[in-house]
Amino acid sequence: MSSALARLPARLRVVGEVSNLRANKHLYFSLKDERAVVSCAMWASSMKSLRELPREGDLVAVTGSLEHYAPQGKTQLIVRRIEAVGLGPLEQQLRRRMTELRAIGYFDDARKKSLPRVPGRIAIITGAGSAALADCLRTARDRMPAVELLVVAVLVQGKGAAEEVARAIAALDAGARRLGIDAILVTRGGGSLEDLWAFNERIVADAVFACRTPLVAAIGHESDTSIIELVADRRASTPTQAITMLVPERQALREALRDAARRLRREVEGGIEDARRRLDLARRHEFLRRPEERVGDARRRIVEARGRLARSLASLVREARVHLEHRRGRLASATRARIPERAELSLRRRRLERALASGLERARARVAAGAGRLRSIGPAEVLARGYAILTDDAGRLLRSVEDARVGAGVSVAVGDGTVRARVESVRRGDPLEAPSEGSPAGG
Question: Angle at Cα 75 formed by Cα 71 and Cα 78, nearest 5°?
């Protein structure tokens, strides 16, 4: 091993993602990529050069040298300097998923449910035989042994862990009423980002979001933040704190019950004393001391009120009758006054009807006279007086000798029909002048 180390450069620069980070006096962590992991240590003397400690998931470049500690068979990179390069792939994926789920409301406080004050049974989803489970059992037993714990063991890291956790949450939620489960706790101890990655998977976030049973999540150390904790109804930094949230402390519950009993006793005693005072006042009341007198007075008041009511009704009826007779007389007078007006109206209506009939007859005579005049100047009357209308074969009117062609056929409309003719000659000049002998036949 020493000969192999001797062939390496004395100063190495390695780039990788920080995981398994722990810091006390010295700084210990691992650097990893897709293919390998190397253990690193940075002594307190070198840590003085750091502006801030690296965080889990950071992508860094470290400078140092390899050393081998033979008694433990351990080889590690002794780091002298750390430079930030950026976020590692897992950290980048985690932040992208957080942004996505926050945008669709998975982290909203408004949708988160209240925890039961005194649960009867709590289901715990965790790794079998884990330290987290031992802490939960011990804390619950110390606080209130009466609370039942139902343990569901699942894989908490590695392949298939996320699916097991999601299935366990869904199954417990579906059977919560049948199993008497009042709350669910999902927990595991600390580890690297890779170790805790199952609790950052979308399938687990979806199962918690759909869960109707109050759910608390406590994953990793206090500095770790996983997606399941952000979606859960409550987040706890440790398994012990989670049980403290869910299981009331026995002595504190006793004190609360005693306080409630004292308040209830004071309220009951106060109510009884108040009832006694009211009863004593009622006993001394005049009505209860001489009830027959009060009943007699009430009966007399009722009889008097009945008489007043009867008199009032009779008076109202008389007044209504007088008013009705008065209105009836006025209506009869008005009706009699309207009779001459109706006769005058009938006379005027008859006069109007005669005037309308006379005017209508005169209008009809004027229309007939106008029609006669129109007919006298119309084409039919003109044709009847011996005139004719000539049109060519296309139906066009011949208005001038220019429109006629020798040899062309024409239609001659006369008063009682139509004559077909052919143009033999065309003469220009006065159409009413008789043609002289020997005049030319055409144009």
Answer: 115
User: What's the mean per-residue pLDDT of the chain?
Assistant: 84
The whole-angstrom separation of Cα 364 and Cα 371 is 11
210 vs 100, 138, 171, 320, 365, CA distance in Å?
A: 17, 30, 12, 76, 97
Burial class (CB in 10 A: 0-12, 13-18, 19+), 172: buried
Which of 219, 221, 239 has its CA nearest to residue 230? 219
CB 64 within 8 A of CB 49: no
Q: What separation in angstroms does the CA of 314 have from each of 208, 301, 323, 369?
A: 81, 20, 14, 80
Q: Are strands 389-392 and 234-235 parallel, antiparallel or unpaired?
A: unpaired
Q: Side chain identity at 273, as an amino acid letter?
A: E
pTM equals 0.48
Cβ atoms of residues 142 and 136 within 8 Å: no
Element (H, E) at 419: strand 417-422
Of all helices (H) and strands (E), which one includes residue 17? strand 12-23
Distance between CA 217 and CA 401 in Å, rounded? 117
In whole angstroms, what is the distance from residue 214 CA to residue 172 CA? 11
> For strand 27-32 and strand 37-42, is the pairing parallel, antiparallel, or unpaired?
antiparallel
Burial class (CB in 10 A: 0-12, 13-18, 19+), 269: exposed
> Could you give the count of Cα atoms lying within 13 Å of 423 in the half-sphere of its Cβ?
22
Q: Which of 35-39, 234-238, 426-430, 439-443 has the lowest mean pLDDT?
A: 439-443
b (16+ CB within 10 A) / e for 327-342: eeeeeeeeeeeeeeee
Using DSSP bridges, classify how beta strands 234-235 and 417-422 pair: parallel, antiparallel or unpaired. Answer: unpaired
Instruction: Name the strand (E) or helix (H) holding 79.
Output: strand 74-87
Strands (E), 106-197: 121-126, 148-153, 183-188
Helices 202-210, 161-174: crossing angle, 10 deg rounding: 10
| Cβ atoms of 218 and 187 closer than 8 Å | yes
Q: Tens digits of per-residue pLDDT, 310-362? A: 888 888 888 888 888 888 888 877 777 666 777 788 888 888 888 888 888 88
Amino acid in position 93? Q
DSSP string, 331-383: HHHHHHHHHHHHHHHHHHHHHHHHHHHHHHHHHHHHHHHHHHHHHHTSHHHHH
| Pairwise CA distance, residues 408 & 424, whole Å | 8
